[in-house]
Every structure is written in C-alpha cells, then in structure tokens.
Amino acid sequence: MSGDRMTCDCGGLLDVVHDPSPASILGAEAWKRLFDHRRRSPSCPADRSGVWRFRELVLPDLAVSQLVTRGEGNTRLYDASCSPRANAWMGTTDVSFKHEGENPTGSFKDRGMTVAVSWAKKSGAKIVACASTGNTSASVASYAALAGLTSVILISEKGTAAGKIAQSLAYGAKAVMIRGDFDTAMRLVLQARTKLGLAVMNSINPVRLEGQKTVIWETLEQLGWDPPDWFVVPGGNLGNCAAFGKALREAYDIGLIDKMPRLAVIQAAGANPLVLSSRDGWKRHTVKAATVATAIKIGDPVNFSKAVRALGWTNGVVTDVTDQEIMDAKAVLDSDGVGAEPASCATVAGIRKLVSKGVIGRDQKTVAVLTGHLLKDPDTTIGYHRGTLDGIVPAAPNPPVVIDPTIDELRRVLGA
Ligand code: F0G
Known about the structure:
This protein is an alpha/beta fold.
C-alpha cells in the first residue's frame, strides 16, 4: 500500500491484509506466549506498548526503530466489583469496563495514532491532519509532536469539548475551527488530502484501524483468552466497530479464541445513522447529528460499510439511547469512581436497554469499552450536576454548595 492511499479506485474503503497470514507463522499458544513475554520486557518500549507487542498482527512492515510510540494501551480492565452501582443500574452482574481513557492522551485514539503517525512518517509525510470531534485531534497533535511532524486539526467552532481543544493547542497543533459540523470538517480534510497533500489521520485511514484492533486483543489477554459474550462500544465514525470486528475475526482465525463474542454498538439517538440503516436493510442513512455526547455527534460515518461487515461477522446488534439516558448512565458510572466522558457512557445506557429487552442476559460476561477520560469534557459533567444542561433533568445531581467560611455554615450544609 502506498503511504497516503486512503480509498480504493472504486471509492470504497481499503483494508490491511496480512501476508503471510499470522496463523501460518506461529500457532495460537506461541503467539500468546510471545505477547505476554513482550509485555514484561525491561528494555524495549515497543514491546511494552499495548499496540506494538502485537506488531506482527498490526503493521509488520514497520521496523521497531520506525515506531512513534508512547507505550500506549495497557489500560485497565475494571471488573464488576469496581462498578457495583453501574452494574446494579444496568441490571447486570458481570459487566467489566475496559478504560481506554487511560491512554497517554486520554482516549482510545492513541492506539490507532501510533500506527498512523509511524506510517505517515515512514512514508515521508510532513503534515498530518484530521477532522475531529476532539479526541482524534488531541492524539494527532501529541503523536505529531513526538514524530517531529506538523499537525493540522479541523474541529467544529461549536461544541468541541474544552479539554480536547486545550490538549491540541498545548501539544502545538495548528487548530482550525470551522463554521460547520464534524461531517463538514471530514469532507474538507479529504479535499485537503488531495489538494494540499496533507496526510489524513482519521479512521478512514486503514492503518489506524489496525492499531485500534489491539483494544480487543489486550482485553482477551486480560481475560486469559476466555472471551466474553459481548463487547459493547459507542458508535460515531464507526472506526472502532470496524476494527473490533476485524480483531475478533482474526483472533478466531488464528485460534486465539474458540468462540466469537458478539458486538453491540450504541449510538446517541440524535446521531444514529447506523441504527436507521439497521432498520432499513442496511441501506446507508445520514442524519444531521445532535447530541450532548459531542464525541459521537456524527451523521455520516466514514466506516459505515466496514461496520456493517463487522456486525455480520459477530452476529452484532445496534441500538440508540437518548441524551438523558447517556447523562444518567454517566452519573452512575462516575459515582463508582470510574467515570468517563459522555460518549463512552452511551455503552452503559445501551447495556441497560439491551438487558431490559432480553438481548444481553443479566449474567452474561460483557466488556464495555470506555473510550475517553472523564476530564475530557468537564463542562458537561458540571452542567449535569448543576442542572444547567439544556433539556436534561439530572436523576442524581451532586451540585457544589457555596458557604461563608464558618464552622456553623459547614455544620449546616453537612447536616451535622
Ligand atoms: N468515543 C469517543 C470518546 C470518541 O472520541 C469517539 C470518536 C467515539 C467514541 C466514536 O468512535 O468513531 O470509532 O465510532 N471520536 C472521533 C474524534 C470522531 O474525532 O475524536 P468511532
């Protein structure tokens, strides 16, 4: 594949295909031993990375010396004992949370970005660019800084979360705010690729998705390669859905797992083109997106066809949840002391809905992927607890109180 190739001549998406196939190189048990051995490497940062210790299954064309890595991945898998309130709220007993907010820039994007930026650098790119709802831009900015490349980010002038903008500015990206939404920014960055020669780091870039597959393998490894019944993930541009389906399929083909987990993709009700499509024979739908979960405020997902393929491979399901449900779910997960940004908590609301419909069994082993850190979007969290979010009535508000600094006042507010 040439360095900046994004799409096929037919206009469709491109896939990375590994040749020779990993299954023909080593047996499943030997792969597992190799991944585990690398994780504990004292000397090699690439080995310790939660992406690159799987490198033969990610992008073997890159030498270890060419990797732009921050040791991404290696995120915690919080079992149900860490989230008793969220499990009770969902009506479940065995939902674990894979917290991708614990990556270097606070989201799962770093797993794809280490691959996309390494590949761009090797291919001679000078400027890397993305359209973003915020997390991709923070990750591009950080990895470009490490690689010594210039980064350009296209974000919506309105609605991008403060933490994400702050990161992109701080890491030195050229921040371009457009008068338009994410879908408009996405179209513009693809034009900029052909007209201005910028290397695009969005998930339309197939090598980025190769890195995101490692969320699945790392989780399976943490579970002793005993697969869960379900992986649940929020859906925006549908890169994760596409990558997770490919990861599961490859794990099954190599023999790393002997049972195929099912994928559940959860969209916001105001940004639900995949849900509409699922009700219409998988005909492509687009919407004008609107949701409090700004990370997934996407109406025309670029990975649509790969996502449909992934749902087919995994006997997957897709559903949507309202902003009220997302924010109430978030408040419950946050109150467990785990916490995540709003888009991530669509999974929590989605599991509750799928359990109530009998799609996910209450005792089924389920892994929900938390895609971004709570601190990415502090304004929305504070707004919920203060009751100032438009159209949202907080179920369990925990607003701050202001007092004069006297012991009597403190006693009064503590009810002591
Ligand atoms: N969760 C978070 C926190 C995200 O930032 C995103 C996407 C998603 C979920 C959806 O993932 O696109 O793979 O379906 N954020 C992109 C961005 C669009 O620009 O940061 P997806």
